[in-house]
Structure formats: C-alpha cells, structure tokens
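Postdoc handover notes: sequence design on the structure in folder B. Input tokens:
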C-alpha cells in the first residue's frame, strides 16, 4: 500500500494533522492507521480539559508561560513554551469550528476551570469527558473529508529505513530516512508494507509499562520504541508523570481517573486520619503541580502504612458536582461511594510521559520525512513536569506546525521542504520503494505458550512500579536494569523464533521503553520535577536534556 501522507495514531494529534493535510491537498491520499478502533486513544480518556488563554481581562500569555515554566522545573524550552501558549487559542478555535462543545456558564461564556499549577482560570472542558468530546468532533470532520482513509486493527511493527535495504544504519548515520512502515494487519493476519513520503507518529504514551496507570491498554510506547530501534533520538524518558488522584480499586487496570479539576473546584486531599495534609508540602496546597502532589501522597501513604489517601468532596453542591463531573459521580456510586457522604479513595498512577521522540519546533524528528507529535514526542514544552491540561494543546499546535512545514517551502527555522535522498542523486521514490523487501517470517513458528508473554509483561510492570516509580534510588535503578536486561534477552529470542503478534510486539516495545526510562534516570544525577532520587536530592546547576 502507498499513501502520500501516513499517520500512525488516531488521537487528537494524528487526526488534526490528517485533516489539515487532506484539506490542503484534496488530490492526495492521507492514510490513518490505528491498532484498535479509531476512537480508542489516549485523547478519549482525557477528562480535565484543554488550557488556553481565553479571558484576556484576567489572564495573559505571560501568566500561562510562567505557570508552564514553573511546573517544568527548569527544563522547558522557553521558545517552545511561547509558541504553544501563543498559538494555542487559535487551534482551540479551529476545534470549536469543527463542532467541539465546551461547557458554558449561565451568561453563555465558556466556563473556565482551574487546575494544579495554574494561576488563573483557563481550562476549557466538556463536563469530565473533554478528550472524548474533542475526539468525537475530529472524527466527525474526518468522515466529511473524502481523501482520508482510516485503517483500524492494524498494528505497526517497525519504521522502514535504509536499514531494510541493506545499508548500515547507526546513531551517527547521516540522513536516516523513513520510507514507511511494516504493519501486522489484524483483519488478514498478514504483515504488509505501507510506503509513504511523509509519516507522522502520533502513537500516544507508555503508561502500560507500570502496574497501575490511567492509560488505556493501547498505551504501550510503540512510537518511542520504533524510533529508538531505527536509531532516532529519544530524550527525557525519566520524567514519567504520576497523576496524584486515580480512583483506588485494588487489582483494577486501567485505573479510573479523578480529574485534577475536582481539586480545582475545591476538593481537599486527606490522609487516613482525616488530616488535610497538602499545606505541609506546598503553599499552593491541593493545587500544587502534579509532581509535588504525587510525592506528598506517596509520603503520606508510606508514613501511615496505607494503600491510598482520600479526596474530600462532601462540601460540594451536589447539583453542580453532578453537572460538572457526571461520570466521576456515577463511577463512584457504582462501587458504593456517594461523594456527597463518603471520601473518595485515591492513589497516584502512571499517567503521562513528558519525554519521548526528540522533535524541533515543526515536529520534525532526527529521522528525515518522519514527524512526531502528541504524547510520544518530546517537544520541550513540559520540561521535567507537565502543567495540567497542556497536553491536548501541545498535540494540536505541533500537528498544525508539522502541516505548516509540509506546505510552506521555507518556514521559519524549519529548513527545506523536502530532504535530499540518502540513496544518491536521481534515485526516485519508486526505485527505492521497489527495493524494499517483504517481511521475512522464514524460520519462525506460531507461539506455543502465551504465558511467556503475559508473565513477562507482569514482571516488567512490577519492576517499573517497584523500582522506578515516584521515588527512586541508585540501587533500585541498578536492580531494575539488571532485570530488564534478562527480560529483553528472553523476549528478543521469542521475537526471533516465533511469528509476530500484537502481544509480543507490545511487550517488546514496553521493555524498550522501560530501558529508556531507567537509563535516563541513571544518567540524571539530581532530583528535578518528576524524577526524584533520594541519593541525589538536590538539583544540579547545569541543566541538560538526557538524549538516548
């Protein structure tokens, strides 16, 4: 199969890019690949909202920039922060024009929320299912666009580069070029090639590397792992954000998210003794940035020997709570918790990866013809800790900027429109594409024991949760790396000898992601943002990204 523009992932980042390129090039083919159905994305599970400067009388770009930089704890790229904050409102307006319905107050103005780390009310939301509403609006627009094809239940195995044509490709190779992808078509159970001049990765996060996560089952770090195997640059993977308030239900995965907007509206965190404890840790109390709140909860749980803390919403107006958080109310009620009478048990859960595939201000990766945006990308916006509700904004801004880079001959600082061929002068796409081999399954057999995969996944999640969680030490990281090495060797042997399956590929990707998180954490001899190592409790004066 061939496409003019190939998009891996159908969340807000992928669909935004697909729509813009398809409308700009009505005679070109835009193909969107998703490994399940088109609406099963990380975007769908985003509850709180999308941040943007909306009320110019009370808010400003400078305030939003400052809040983002403070949360990022010294590692944000100031230029990127300014780009996202200033271009964000226009991207939100485009989404509204697509039909996204954000909540309004009695006057008809947008009902802006406030979350941890924000100095003003600037969060647009649709009750407590904002991501789902945004995904709905984008998919509706996609259905109206004739030259977008969505292929569901299609698992991407690897990026195709010169490596697959017999060239030696290393991290120092110049002009590594993406030619498309190998995919496992789950409808036909065949491995196919999809070739394209332009590929965009919008593959989401990697929360499934941990035992407890708010991410859906699909969040297995596929894009990051594929780029790393293709010798692309990955950075800052040690900064894994744990959402402070996931509903505590032992043995349930993914965890149900209790959005930060609940604390923004006045929810109070209490320990097992009923004490409101956040004032001991930060003057912003329950609305401190997520890294601070998550560590405070972790400390309270360890001090008290408890498995959770509690979120107190008993003082809320019932009608307003149900209006703003209907799904949270119903979910709690379904397990016997009336939030108007009972405390909500909560505990931190892996939520968001602040690092990922290194990109520039136009979403270009270190591999030519390959772009990345959304959670799989490391743009420089989040630094060491993401400010709440900045992720959906970031995804739309960089999807737009990738589109700009493709449609503007020389966008500012973006370089040339088309990269030179790494295969020599006069070598066209067709000649290269014809030389790309089919996937070779020679010498492999059907997997005999799925237990080898499922048990390895449980081991990986235990290693990451027990040794590479909210609080880390050098010894824990060393132990994690030794165990990951063994898992890697066992899984690679399985990959070489058995036929490819989604479960095996996801395990392989998660082990790679786990390695990158641990390696980044070992390199960072300091505590900053989401990375807290008790052996290195202070911040370093010299700030740098950890590139792997």
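Designed sequence:
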């Amino acid at each position: 199969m061939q496409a003019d523009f190939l998009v891996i992932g159908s969340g807000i980042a992928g669909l935004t890019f697909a729509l813009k390129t398809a409308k700009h090039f009505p005679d070109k083919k835009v193909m969107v690949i998703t490994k399940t159905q088109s609406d099963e994305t990380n975007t769908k599970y985003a509850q709180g909202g999308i941040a943007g400067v909306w009320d110019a009388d009370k808010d400003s770009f400078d305030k939003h920039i400052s809040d983002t930089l403070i949360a990022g704890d010294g590692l944000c790229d100031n230029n990127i922060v300014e780009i996202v904050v200033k271009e964000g409102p226009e991207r939100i307006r485009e989404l509204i024009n697509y039909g996204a319905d954000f909540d309004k107050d009695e006057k008809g103005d947008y009902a802006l929320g406030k979350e941890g780390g924000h100095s003003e009310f600037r969060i647009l939301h649709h009750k407590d299912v904002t991501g789902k509403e945004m995904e709905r609006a984008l998919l509706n627009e996609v259905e109206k666009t004739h030259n977008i094809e969505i292929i569901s239940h299609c698992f991407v195995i690897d990026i195709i580069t010169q490596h697959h044509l017999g060239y030696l490709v290393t991290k120092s190779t110049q002009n590594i070029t993406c030619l498309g992808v190998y995919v496992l078509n789950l409808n036909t159970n065949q491995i196919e090639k999809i070739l394209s001049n332009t590929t965009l990765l919008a593959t989401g996060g990697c929360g499934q590397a941990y035992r407890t996560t708010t991410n859906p089952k699909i969040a297995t770090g596929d894009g990051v792992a594929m780029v790393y195997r293709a010798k692309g640059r990955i950075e800052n993977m040690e900064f894994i954000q744990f959402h402070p308030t996931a509903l505590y239900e032992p043995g349930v995965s993914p965890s149900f998210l209790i959005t930060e907007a609940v604390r923004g509206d006045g929810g109070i965190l209490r320990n097992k003794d009923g004490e409101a404890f956040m004032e001991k840790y930060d003057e912003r109390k329950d609305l401190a940035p997520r890294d601070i709140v998550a560590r405070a909860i972790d400390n309270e749980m360890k001090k008290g020997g408890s498995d959770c803390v509690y979120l107190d919403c008993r003082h809320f107006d019932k009608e307003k709570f149900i209006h703003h958080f209907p799904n949270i109310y119903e979910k709690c009620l379904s397990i016997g918790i009336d939030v108007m009478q009972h405390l909500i048990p909560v505990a931190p859960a892996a939520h968001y990866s602040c690092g990922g595939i290194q990109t520039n201000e136009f979403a270009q990766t270190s591999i030519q013809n390959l772009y990345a945006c959304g959670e799989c990308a490391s743009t420089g916006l989040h630094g060491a800790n993401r400010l709440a509700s900045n992720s959906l904004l970031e995804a739309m801004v960089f999807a737009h900027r990738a589109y700009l880079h493709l449609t503007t001959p020389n966008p500012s600082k973006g370089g040339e429109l088309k990269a030179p061929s790494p295969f020599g002068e006069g070598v066209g796409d067709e000649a290269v594409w014809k030389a790309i081999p089919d996937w070779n399954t020679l010498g492999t057999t059907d997997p005999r024991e799925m237990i080898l995969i499922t048990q390895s996944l449980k081991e990986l999640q235990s290693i990451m949760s027990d040794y590479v969680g909210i609080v880390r030490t050098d010894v824990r990281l060393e132990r994690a790396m030794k165990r990951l090495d063994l898992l890697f060797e066992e899984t690679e042997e399985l990959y070489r000898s058995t036929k490819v399956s989604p479960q095996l590929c996801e395990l392989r990707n998660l082990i790679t992601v786990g390695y990158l998180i641990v390696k980044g954490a070992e390199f960072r001899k300091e505590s900053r943002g989401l990375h807290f190592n008790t052996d290195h409790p202070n911040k370093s004066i010299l700030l740098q990204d950890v590139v792997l």
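Context for whoever picks this up: The chain has a mean pLDDT of 91. Don't rerun without checking with the PI first.
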